[in-house]
Design brief:
About 30% of the residues lie in helices and about 20% in strands. It is α/β, with parallel strands linked by helices. It folds into 3 domains: about 60 residues, no CATH class; about 160 residues, P-loop containing nucleotide triphosphate hydrolases (Rossmann fold, 3-Layer(aba) Sandwich); about 150 residues, P-loop containing nucleotide triphosphate hydrolases (Rossmann fold), CATH 3.40.50. The chain has a 7-stranded parallel sheet with strand order 8-9-7-10-11-6-12. Strand 3 and strand 4 form a beta hairpin. The protein binds zinc ion. The site of zinc ion has 8 residues, from loops.
């Protein structure tokens, strides 16, 4: 169902928006009473004020019945096929599944068959992606391959879901749905802002039907999921290989002894005849690094969430118009460059978690014809996260080799 704050036609259900101890819009319990004795919810306030004087009206979201089909000019690899079968098996047995697949494994395509099956059974299907840039990219791919299907992409700025059989959405937009989806795929569960965010988890839960099938996908796996998997509450499947079956590039560590050492190292690195992404922990460090490189004759550009011309910066890097792109963790996932190296400055900074480092390692050597990329972590200290990331990449590569035998 779809939930509205205003009454249009006759709703299927009407509920009080907020009670003394609970908000029905976000299922939160962070309720405050104001001086007038009105109760309102603090958790979902940014979606517009909501209080106990208001109602939520729930309507059926009608979608046209269609015969859906996939048109694709390539086949899934054996590993992708296995993962696709895993999802279909979870779906037909009504079980929750977790697929761990490294970056570049072609995760989206692994969901096609299960989505197709659910759509043809006239089920409501949702696909959650935390990052808008990735969502737009995935939307294009679905449009191309699901030629008969009405597909919506919901994010801040686009809330149009009329007639959509398949809804791609950020987790934030799930607030407008109530027990709507029979099948929900949740991609990049390890990514900001979804990871460790109980508010968004609540919204996603609220949007799914009681017996819905949830399928999670991620390159890394956190403790909470690990626990649920070991308790057999969630089924698990690992795709250790990328589609070209090449191992992931293992990060190397380099200790920094002094600022001069760092500066010299950086300039030498950027002057090599290869393109590289230089990851920095903060926007301030990015600005300073970019200026420093320019002063030392290195053609570089800087990109962060604040950059206004992100697409242009990325496109001209792709066109090899310059060699060094300084970036915050903005480019940690979702964007593919054919043949690059990665350098992490201040890799011991807390923004570089195990998950982030693994994602960044996935930026390197992503296409079959290029595999010589390297990833180097520069830092004063070697952190737990750095070691854990390295260990997990080695483990995934070993699992990959075992499967290849
Ligand atoms: Zn609320």
């Amino acid at each position: 169902m779809i939930e509205k704050l205003y009454r249009k036609d006759k709703p299927l259900e009407t509920v009080k928006a907020v009670t003394k101890n609970r908000c029905n819009r976000c299922n939160g319990t962070n309720i405050q009473e104001d001086v007038m004795g009105v109760y309102y919810c603090l958790d979902c306030f940014e979606y517009g004020e909501i209080n106990d004087q208001m109602s939520l009206y729930r309507y059926e979201r009608a979608v046209p019945f269609k015969r859906h089909r996939i048109e694709m000019d390539y086949h899934l690899t054996d590993l992708q096929k296995k993962a696709s079968d895993f999802f279909i098996d979870c779906y037909s047995k009504n079980q929750i599944g977790f697929l761990q697949a490294v970056c570049g494994a072609g995760k989206t395509e692994m969901t096609y068959q299960v989505i197709l099956q659910a759509l043809n059974e006239h089920r409501k299907v949702g696909y959650i992606l935390p990052r808008v840039a990735v969502l737009k990219e995935v939307y294009k791919r679905f449009k191309k391959h699901f030629i008969e299907t009405n597909i919506a992409a919901l994010f801040e700025g686009n809330k149009q879901h009329d007639n959509a059989n398949l809804v791609l959405s950020t987790p934030q937009q799930m607030i407008y749905f109530y027990k709507e989806f029979d099948l929900l795929i949740i991609d990049e569960v390890d990514a900001y802002p979804y990871a460790n965010n109980p508010f968004l988890e609540r919204l996603v839960k609220k949007a799914t039907k009681q017996n819905a099938v949830l399928l999670y996908m991620s390159a890394t796996i956190n403790e909470a999921f690990q626990n649920q998997i070991s308790k057999k509450e969630i089924r698990y499947h690992l795709v250790p290989s990328r589609y070209h079956k090449k191992p992931l590039v293992v990060p190397k560590f380099q200790r920094i002894r002094s600022t001069k050492h760092l500066n010299d190292f950086l300039v030498n690195w950027c002057n090599r005849p290869r393109q590289s992404l230089v990851f920095v922990p903060t926007i301030d460090i990015g600005i300073v690094t970019n200026e420093f490189l320019h002063l030392n004759g290195v053609e570089a550009r800087f990109i962060s969430s604040q950059s206004k011309d992100k697409n242009q910066i990325i496109q001209s890097f792709r066109n090899q118009e310059y060699r060094t792109l300084v970036t915050t963790t903005l480019l940690e996932r979702g964007v593919t460059f054919p043949d690059i190296d990665c350098l992490l400055l201040w890799a011991d900074h807390r923004v570089f978690t195990k998950e982030t480092i693994i994602q960044i390692a996935g930026r390197v050597g992503r296409l079959a014809e290029f595999e010589s990329g390297s990833i180097l972590l520069l830092s004063t200290y070697i952190t737990k996260a750095m070691k854990a990331a390295r260990k997990e990449i080695i483990r995934m590569n070993q699992a990959n080799e075992m499967q290849a035998v």
